[in-house]
From TrEMBL, chain A:
It comes from the Bacteria. This is Uncharacterized protein. The chain crosses the membrane at residues 12-31, 51-74, 86-110. Keywords: Membrane, Transmembrane, Transmembrane helix.
UniProtKB/TrEMBL annotation, chain B:
NCBIfam families: CtaD_CoxA. The keyword Electron transport applies. This is cytochrome-c oxidase. The lineage of its organism: Bacteria, Pseudomonadati, Pseudomonadota, Gammaproteobacteria, Oceanospirillales. Its main location: membrane. It is a multi-pass membrane protein. Residues 18-538 form the Cytochrome oxidase subunit I profile domain. Residues 580-837 form the Heme-copper oxidase subunit III family profile domain. It is found in: Cell membrane. Keywords: Cell membrane, Copper, Electron transport, Heme, Iron, Membrane, Metal-binding, Respiratory chain, Translocase, Transmembrane, Transmembrane helix, Transport. The gene is ctaD.
């Protein structure tokens, strides 16, 4: 189990995109439920609780994934067997993509109201 | 040349080959139905898929004939609806997925140095499910009862009110049956790739094709269950009136769209990834250098596999979803261009840095690059919401889809066909016929579908059966039709080339393309056992690094080269490092897969003609057959009664506690979990979104009986875990009695759940709420019943001496099943009882 937490383990090939997937499902489901249960006044612009909530989740996830990218690169540098280095660097690339993807998918909250 | 007749081999080695040939022999005649070997089953999948491709192609030509001229009365609109629905259905479900699975089933063991897949009987079962399901579905055309609601069967168009005949039922039941096949292949490909690679082949050095198939198989396992659930719900609605998709009853037709596209969008990548795998295999061979950026490709595969699940709503941009949600999916749709771009640049870089040689397979690869890049570009256009609204449901979308699917799948598939044909037949195809075929298909395809972009931009809707000449679409449609027939001529030449090459093709050399892959180390055509000895490999390019490998393998100089025990065997290795862990003994030819699939086909037909008592009997027969099949496992005399292995070899897998069976059960539960999550999604979706959702003030379910069932499940799981812990300590005292006790707890849970359903007095045909509750309760009831039955069988097997300290694997597998059920049961309890009780019901 402890081994799974090391960033040189191949499980981290999928952990970055899994975090991205959980965030993506959470913001889409959260948006849908919030718009269904408590939609903000249609006259209001982007400064709604929903956009702020999605924005905070986006920022947190981006930072988490960015940190994991950096940590994976560091783990790759330290890794001795070639196999471990391979998985650490490949995972770093996927973490980086996931961080960028989170920011790219989440940034429309800046210019779109939530429930229209 | 058959290895047994190779005059250069010593008599001892020839005896070894003869022994292998006897143990791995495929019966002929009626006995051919018992064959489970991956080479035969893979070929069957591919040949059957090719036949369905011809049927789908014929339907396409009927469509193009109808659309060639304005106001054409070649077909009525009713017939046209059936033809385009069946064209899409046949191509997607009966051709694309099965033929790629067939290729994977055929190639993967050969590439990773295994003798067979890890569950050969499951492969054979999957094939028969596919064959019978395909026949049932296609027979609807002969009865003039084919589905007519389009290949994605949107409700309410496919519901009872608007599609009252049997057409939709043929689709729903036939496709669900075929998907059993896809899932079974998906599960065993995952486990085979992870656990049966040859000695020393670590994960990061396995062939790229295996990475692609691993991703494809996992995507099938996770991606298909939403559609299976949707099909079950829609069939229940059509057959019994449960209103899952009916607004008046508290359902919502948009739920179907979600469930369909949760499957449907990943499906496109499930089809593309093996195609890309072929490209990543062939380009280095013909560029004569290793691929540039192996790690980049692995990362791109993983990203593509995941991101493809986050795009499903881009098929639903016109359904009235909030703009912000549209923006999320629009952005996610653009993201997928990144892993695609990585792969395209890797392929181009490999060609740029290599010394490419032009050959017939490469011609198809170049065709792929051109067509797929164009399809990808229109894909990015369609990801933009305003443009998507503009061209939604027009021929532009049809053109885009064909560029992606034909470019991304058919062209690489034909490249792979020409590349691996010498392996299958031992002969080379004709370069001249092959080039003619390529140019006819390539030009015909572009003539058909490039023009179709413009037809779409001019406003021609998809699925209209004719048009007025005043619309100005005449010439474009005529050109598309001419192109379509040109493409058909190319396909005819392709078939001719393949057929003729078996008789007239030049004999292929040992490694005709100077390839690096292990598959070229075997005899041509391959023997059923693939390799008489299994080499230790620590390289991505076995044949480039050791050109003598074919000879040394044939001479039996590598591992697992004994056959006097009479078992079919392959290595079981560590998923990560490739170190040896077990000798996996594989089942031999068997009738069970055929008869089990036949019984399920009976279930399907009985449901179709709505003779439900007979369907129940057929289901019972199918279950009995499947359980009887499971009886012949582990230490059973027909499996491996003798556990002796050669000195220095690891133990037989059934004599360990972490054999591939444990992995198979875990991967199966990924599929099962995906189905469960889809059900949960449906529950919450209807609860929060359906406009007429009706939930009672208090839950109709008895909390005491629900908790009682949960407690018996929890106790049973804990008890089983204790038995397994004792087995780990080499103690099997009381194992049989313990299994019977767990079976009793399973039975108690079944009875309590049945009582919950009985006492709740649900009205499933009145409200979607009650209908969903009933399906959810039946889901856990079936698991409770099956959990009890498995423990009962384990108790019997302990009595027969098939399970115990000497063969401890099976209780571990059964425990996994109970653990899965334990988790989903309590999650469901929270979702269907605790949350409604806490949050309150009401409408």
């Amino acid at each position: 189990m402890k081994q799974l937490l090391r960033l040189t383990h191949p499980i981290h090939l999928v952990s970055g995109v899994t975090i991205w997937g959980i965030w993506f499902v959470a913001i889409y489901a959260g948006l849908s439920v919030a718009c269904s249960v408590a939609p903000p006044d249609p006259e209001r612009d982007m400064l709604t609780g929903i956009n702020i909530g999605v924005g905070l989740a986006t920022l947190f996830t981006t930072l988490l994934l960015s940190g994991l990218t950096w940590a994976s690169v560091a783990a790759g540098r330290r890794a001795e067997p070639r196999r471990e280095r391979f998985f650490a660097y490949a995972s770093a690339g996927i973490f980086l993509f996931s961080a960028g993807g989170t920011l790219f998918v989440g940034y429309p909250i800046i210019f779109l109201p939530p429930c229209l | 040349m058959s290895d047994t007749k190779d005059a250069t081999l010593t008599p001892e080695v020839r005896r070894l080959h003869k022994g292998m040939a006897e143990v791995w022999a495929n019966p002929r005649g009626l006995g051919a139905l018992t064959v489970v070997n991956h080479t035969s089953v893979g070929l069957r999948f591919m040949v059957t898929g090719a036949i369905f491709f011809l049927i789908g192609g014929l339907l396409a030509m009927l469509i193009r004939t109808q659309l060639a001229f304005p106001d054409n009365d070649f077909m009525s609109h009713e017939t046209y609806n059936q033809v385009f629905t069946m064209h899409g259905t046949v191509m997607m479900f009966l051709f694309a997925i099965p033929i790629l699975e067939g290729l994977a089933i055929y190639m993967i063991p050969k590439m990773i140095g295994a003798r067979d897949l890890v569950c050969p009987r499951l492969s054979a079962f999957g094939y028969f499910c596919y064959l019978f399901g395909g026949i049932i579905l296609v027979s609807s055309l002969l009865f003039e009862m084919a589905p007519a609601s389009g290949w994605f069967m949107y409700t309410p168009l496919s519901s009872g009110d608007y599609a009252p005949g049997r057409g939709s039922d043929f689709w729903l039941l036939g496709i669900t049956f075929v998907e059993i096949s896809a899932l079974s292949a998906g599960v065993e490909l995952v486990v085979s790739i992870l656990r049966t690679r040859t000695e020393g082949m670590p994960l990061h050095k396995m062939p790229l094709f295996a990475w692609y198939i691993l991703a494809m198989a996992l995507m099938i396992v996770v991606g298909f269950p939403p559609l299976i659930l949707g099909s079950i719900l829609l069939e229940l609605e059509r057959a019994t009136g449960m209103p899952f998709f009916d607004v008046a009853g508290g359902g919502d037709p948009v739920l179907w769209a979600h469930l369909f596209w949760l499957f449907g969008h990943p499906e496109v990548y499930i089809i593309f990834l093996p195609g890309a795998g072929i490209v990543s295999t062939l380009i280095p061979v013909f560029a004569r250098r290793p691929i540039v950026g192996y790690g980049w490709v692995v990362a791109a595969i993983v990203i593509m596999g995941f991101v493809s699940f986050g795009l499903w709503v881009h098929h639903m941009f016109t359904l009235g979803i909030p703009q912000l949600a549209l923006a999320f999916f629009s952005a996610a749709s653009m993201l997928v261009a990144i892993p695609t771009g990585i792969q395209i640049f890797v392929w181009l870089s490999t060609l740029w840095l290599g010394r490419p040689v032009m050959s017939l397979p490469m011609l198809w690869i170049i065709g792929f690059l051109v067509i797929f890049v164009l399809g990808g570009l229109t894909g990015v256009m369609l990801a933009l919401v305003p443009f998507n609204w503009q061209v939604h449901d027009t021929h532009f979308v049809v053109a885009h889809m064909h560029y992606v699917l034909v470019g991304g799948m058919l062209f690489p598939l034909i490249a792979g066909l020409y590349y691996w044909l010498p392996l299958v037949s031992g002969r080379m195809p004709s370069a001249r016929l092959g080039k003619w075929s390529f140019w006819l298909i390539f030009l015909g395809f572009n003539l058909t579908f490039l023009i179709m972009h413009w037809t779409g931009l001019l406003g021609m809707r998809r699925r209209v059966f004719t048009y007025d000449t005043a619309m100005g679409w005449d010439i474009y449609n005529l050109i598309s039709s001419v192109g379509g027939f040109m493409m058909s001529a190319g396909v005819a030449l392709l078939i001719l080339d393949v057929a003729l090459h078996f008789r007239f093709g030049k004999k292929a050399s040992q490694n005709p393309w100077n390839a690096d892959g292990l598959e070229w180390a075997m005899s041509k055509p391959p023997t059923p056992y693939n390799f008489v000895s299994l080499p230790r490999l620590d390289t991505r390019h076995p044949l480039w690094d050791d050109p003598e490998l074919p000879r040394t393998i044939t001479e039996g100089r590598h591992g697992l080269s004994t056959i006097d025990h009479g078992r079919r065997e392959t290595w079981g290795s560590d998923a990560l490092t490739g170190k040896l862990r077990e000798v996996v003994h594989l089942p031999t030819n068997s009738w069970w897969p055929f008869f089990a699939a036949l019984a399920l086909a009976m279930v399907c037909v009985c449901l179709l003609i709505r003779i439900y008592p007979l369907a129940a009997v057929a289901t019972l027969v199918a279950v009995v057959l499947l359980l009887r099949w499971s009886w012949e496992n582990g230490a059973h005399p027909r499996a491996a009664p003798d556990s002796t292995v050669s000195p220095g070899q690891p133990p037989l897998h059934s004599r360990t506690m972490n054999g591939p069976g444990v992995w198979t059960m875990s991967v199966t539960h990924l599929a099962n979990g995906s189905l469960f999550l889809s059900l949960l999604f449906g529950w919450f979706y209807l609860w929060t979104v359906a406009p007429e959702w009706q939930m009672p003030e208090t839950s109709p379910l008895s909390p005491s009986m629900l908790v009682g069932a949960g407690v018996s499940l929890t106790l049973g799981s804990a008890w089983l875990a204790r038995l397994v812990r004792r087995l780990r300590r080499d103690n099997d005292a009381g194992l049989g009695g313990g299994m019977y006790l767990a079976a009793g707890l399973g039975a108690l849970q079944t009875v309590l759940l049945a009582a919950v359903i009985w006492q709740a007095e649900l009205a499933p045909t009145e409200t979607a709420h009650d209908a969903t509750l009933l399906v959810a309760l039946l889901y856990v009831l079936i698991h409770a019943l099956l959990g009890g039955l498995l423990c009962l069988l384990q108790g019997l097997r302990v009595g027969y001496g098939f399970v115990g300290v000497h063969a401890p694997l099976e209780p571990v597998v059964v425990l996994r099943f109970w653990y899965y059920h334990l988790v989903v049961y309590w999650v469901l309890f929270v979702a269907i009882w605790a949350m409604p009780t806490i949050l309150g019901g009401g409408t």
